[in-house]
Every structure is written in C-alpha cells, then in structure tokens.
Amino acid sequence: MKRDIELINAHLDKYLELRYPNNIWEAMRYSVLAKGKRLRPLIALESARACGGDINNVLPAACAIEMLHCQSLIHDDLPCMDNDDYRRGQLTNHKVYGEAIAVLAGDALLSLAPRVIIKHTPDSVDKKILLSVLDEFFKAAGAMGIVGGQVVDIQSENREINIETFNYILNHKTGELFKFAARAGALLAGATGEKPDALASYGSKIGYAFQIADDILDVTGTIDEIGKTPGKDSKLNKNTYVSFHGIEKSETDLINICESAKKILMRNKIKSGLLYDIADNIVMKAVK
Amino acid sequence: MKRDIELINAHLDKYLELRYPNNIWEAMRYSVLAKGKRLRPLIALESARACGGDINNVLPAACAIEMLHCQSLIHDDLPCMDNDDYRRGQLTNHKVYGEAIAVLAGDALLSLAPRVIIKHTPDSVDKKILLSVLDEFFKAAGAMGIVGGQVVDIQSENREINIETFNYILNHKTGELFKFAARAGALLAGATGEKPDALASYGSKIGYAFQIADDILDVTGTIDEIGKTPGKDSKLNKNTYVSFHGIEKSETDLINICESAKKILMRNKIKSGLLYDIADNIVMKAVK
Questions:
Q1: Domains identified in chain B, total number
Q2: What is the domain extent for residue B49?
C-alpha cells in the first residue's frame, strides 16, 4: 500500500509539472500534493490488480481521480460554499492563493484529469473502453455525480430533509467517485463479466461508509486526526449521518456496511487483501 | 447560418434536459440557452462543411464548445473574478442563482461537455480522432488555455505588462477556443493534410480579432449592443487592446487580422462563404 501511494504521488508530481503561469500550477500542486490518504486512487489500482490486470493501465486514471477529488474539495471549501479554512492539515486553497485562483485551479484540475487519462494510458488499452471510462469519470464529476450531491447538500442546509434526500447527497457527493474508482480499475484491467459491477458496488459501499466515518469523526475527532476543523458540520447545522441517526446507530451501520462491502468481494471471488483492509480501516478509525 | 444556430440551440436544449436536482440544470440552461451569437460552434460546423464533412459528426463537439465557453463566462463573472452583473443581455448566473450554484453550474458544464462528445458523436468517427479531439478540448479549457489566460489576466490587473504578456492573455483567454473550434470541425469531418492546421490558424486569428473587437466595443458600444456593462474594463483598469494601442491602431489591426484570416482560407483553397462572412462581420460590428 505504501508503495502504491508513493507511485501515485510520484505520478501526480510528474503530471503537475510546473509551467507558465506558475501561480496556477502551484495552486494545483498545493492541493493535490498535500498529504492525503489517496484512498480513491488506491482502490482503482487494487481493483485492477484484483482482476489480474496491469496497474500501469490504471495509474493515469487513478491520478485523474485524485485530481477530480481535489477539484471538488477546492471548490467545496470556497467561502460561497462550505467556507472552510483547513483541509488535509493545511490552509485551504483560497486561503493561500485567493478565491479567483482557487476557482481556476479547480477548473484546471478538472481539465487536466482527462488529458492525463488520454495521454498516459498505455496504447494497449482498447479505445472504446477508454472512452467509456472518460464518460463515467465525468458522470461521477458532474450534475449526476459530485456536483449534484453538493447542490442538494447546499439546498438542504438549515432545513429538514427526508432520508431519501440525505442518501442522495451521500451517494452522489462521496459514493459516485469511489464507485467509479473501483469500476474503472476493473474496466482498464480488461475485466469482463460481473467483476466491474461487483467492484462498483463495493466502491459505492466504501464511499458511503467513508462519509459516515467522516461525519462521526466531525463529532468525535480532533483537528490532528482529521486534518480539518472539527465540529464544522453541526455549527453549519448540516445534515449528517450522525445528525440523522445518532452516534450509536451511525457506528453500527458503518460496521454493517463495511461487512457487506467485504461480502461482495467474497461472493465474487475477488481476492485482494488491500480491499478488505480498506473496509476494516474505515471502521477502525471512526469506531473507537 | 440561421439554420445552423437553430440546430445548435435545439441540441443544446436537448443535451441540457431538466433533471434532478433541477436547480443546477436550470442554472446551466440559464447561461447556455441565453441569446448568444454561437460563433464558436458555428465555426466548428462550418469548418467541417468546408472540409466536405458531415456536420452531424461535429454537432456534439460544437455544443460542447458552447458549454465550455459558457462555463468560462460563468466563472469569469463571479465576484471574486471580474464581478460582472450582466452578460448576454441578462443578469449573470451568480446574480440569479447565487455564487455557490454558479461555481457548481460551471463545473457541471465542464463535466457534461465531454460526455456529450463521447455519447453523441456518431459511431463512424474514428475513436483515435475522438480521443485527440477530447484532449485538445481540455487543453483549450485548462491551464494551457482559457484558465491560463484568465490567470495571467487577473495577475495583470492594475499593473503594467509587456506586449508578450498581453498577447498571451489574448491568445489563451479567447484564441484557444476559437482555434480548437475550427480545428475540431476539420478533424471530426475526417480532414487530413494541411486543412486542420490551416483552419486552426484561421480560428486563432478570428479569436484574436474577436477580442480586439470586444475591447473596442467596451469603449464605443452601448449595453444593448454588447449585452453587458460597457466601460467595465477601463473602470477595472484592465489591460485591453485599446488601452495598449489606442482606438485607431486597434481598428486598423482588427481589419488587417481579419484580412489575413481570410487569406489563410484562400491559400488553402477552403471554400466557405460563412467563414469569410464571420471575419467581415467582426470588423463591421466594431469599426463604425
């Protein structure tokens, strides 16, 4: 896992080589190269490995996924959105580079990500698969994915919402990209049959679990543990898994969801220690 | 030309079909379906036609180009950037939907555009060409294109800059997308040889000319003529072609650049009344 993280970081560093105008590349690098768990790209790589594929086929897409994730964080943190000062243990992008550059750094990352996939995925990968991976990438990014989740999340602030709406937010803001990461790994590895969908389903559950864990840690965690200001959600009167279900049920649900993610792997004979570990780690970090 | 505009508008309307969450799709529709000249998509279609290609091959990319253009306008108009209240004769996106939705509507458009190209370009178009069109699309969008130009533009406010920097802004903020539109039309029409590059060069010049015309009209135009607040650039102490060269030279240069754009068409035997008309119209509108 450590080696994969190093591989991802080295490639992100390469893809984000400093160019003119320096300021925007520095802003992109600042957020993308910040200390992160790289969970989404790790899942993409491991998903490919679990399907018997070459991880070099997936490395560009894995890096693109991290870029997209960072783009969404930079824009989410803006004063007009969640207005966050800290992220990944450092000041947010707009706090360092100003709001204009932060907006543009997000746009630039969203534009660079597909170029990385197109230019750096090995020629051996079928072009039809590559195009469908790009299509799903942008589905996860846009109004049917992360953006859609964020929109409903903003609209729901200071309002009572039902459980369907809450689940929509959770699945779209976080679930879609995890789902895509796992599925893209399988597709780019050349997996056919039921594996891509099984891994998509695993990814979706992991994303859901990850957000529940995040909501739990917003209540129980420290700034050192989570790398951002804790207690922010309740201060903003945000709907979170915890505000909906309470800490106790949140913890139980988290455990059950991660168990069911692992069961999907078992049922589909997907052998990967790391994918199991990821599910277990989410639980361990949030449930003390 | 009128029929092409109707075709573009009908397809934009279709691609932007209202979905849940409505608010974001409405915001996207508000800016994209606003009255616009559709100059970039028109150039893409006509470029394909001039290469003897089927415009249906280019229609999705043409619409994607308009979406990208609108995305850049929505983000440029934000209070943290140019802080504009009017655009295309109506209130700017954030004035109607708020800043958060405006940021997200831009992100959603940038994510929808490639999906339109991937899903709606006819199967007959070679997948390698499609991937290279997507790559060039995002080059025009990102830190080596529109975003790069906007970054240098922001950094240059209230500062003296040299002519190289000024030209960088002009070519990237405006030129790149025009260049891409003309080139993509040729590529998707299956053109080979020198035509794609010749059309790219035509597009680049038209983009340059278009920005000069815009700068002239910011000084001499009315809000009715230009659909946005005039005099804004000089109020913001912005570097414009006019602030650099004065009105008289701006007008002469505009005429010369449009003539040289037409000469490229002639030299490469590219027959298209509309591409000539576009060059002439830019001059006619700005030089009274």
A1: 1
A2: 2-286
